[in-house]
């Protein structure tokens, strides 16, 4: 039985995302650091959607809407 | 200028795509759908958060007088939340031990090869 596939960000995407934001063009990223950043970003997105869904459940809403996400956003940003 | 803008849009699209997949998995086991705008908002937040992360990482590396961001910098980045920190620590340990294993395997195979062609070219496979 194939369990749910774990979706992850591609290593290439993460590496590009990071290097484009570096001020100094000499700055590089090690391979393991890229893998771990992918993990952090995945946790961030998962946490965002889980909290938004919890908010939607609390408000007894059928669908998770932007307003639910807006409500959990400040605490989410403080936690990362 | 136009080139970087296009690159940026492509990166955003990539983040959006994976965010959509992750949201779908969570929607499946939570029994509630995500509106398209919510997914877009989460993707945009992740994208911008990544920008902050990158800047932090660069400063961490510079503070350690390095030009390369490494695992230690990422661990420092995850300090705000204890749970995340332990999780990242665990993952980094896993990665480190995987590397160690690979190294040992390589060492063994090179030793074997050396043994086979005895003293043909000594010291070629030295690290």
UniProtKB/TrEMBL annotation, chain A:
SUPFAM superfamilies recorded: Histone-fold
Keywords annotated in UniProt: DNA damage, DNA repair, DNA-binding, Nucleus
Keyword DNA repair applies: yes
Range of residues in the leader sequence: none
Record keyword Nucleus present: yes
GO molecular function, one term: DNA binding
Location(s) in or outside the cell: Nucleus
Swiss-Prot/TrEMBL GO biological process terms: DNA repair
InterPro entries, alphabetized: CENP-X, Histone-fold
GO cellular component, one term: nucleus
Gene3D superfamilies attached to this UniProt entry: 1.20.5.4980, 6.10.130.30
Quaternary structure and interacting proteins, as annotated: Heterodimer with CENPX, sometimes called MHF; this interaction stabilizes both partners. MHF heterodimers can assemble to form tetrameric structures. MHF also coassemble with CENPT-CENPW heterodimers at centromeres to form the tetrameric CENP-T-W-S-X complex. Forms a discrete complex with FANCM and CENPX, called FANCM-MHF; this interaction, probably mediated by direct binding between CENPS and FANCM, leads to synergistic activation of double-stranded DNA binding and strongly stimulates FANCM-mediated DNA remodeling.
Record-stated family: Belongs to the CENP-X/MHF2 family.
PANTHER family from the UniProt entry: CENTROMERE PROTEIN X
Protein name as it appears in the record: Centromere protein X
Automatic annotation (TrEMBL), chain B:
GO BP term (any one): DNA repair
Xref: InterPro entries: CENP-S/Mhf1, Histone-fold
Pfam families assigned: CENP-S (PF15630)
Entry superkingdom: Eukaryota
SUPFAM superfamilies linked: Histone-fold
DNA repair keyword on record: yes
UniProt KW keywords: DNA damage, DNA repair, DNA-binding
Keyword set includes Oxidoreductase: no
Stretches with biased composition (Basic residues): 105-115
Compositional bias (Basic and acidic residues): 90-104
Sequence similarity: Belongs to the TAF9 family. CENP-S/MHF1 subfamily.
Protein name: Centromere protein S
Source species of the chain: Coilia grayii (Gray's grenadier anchovy)
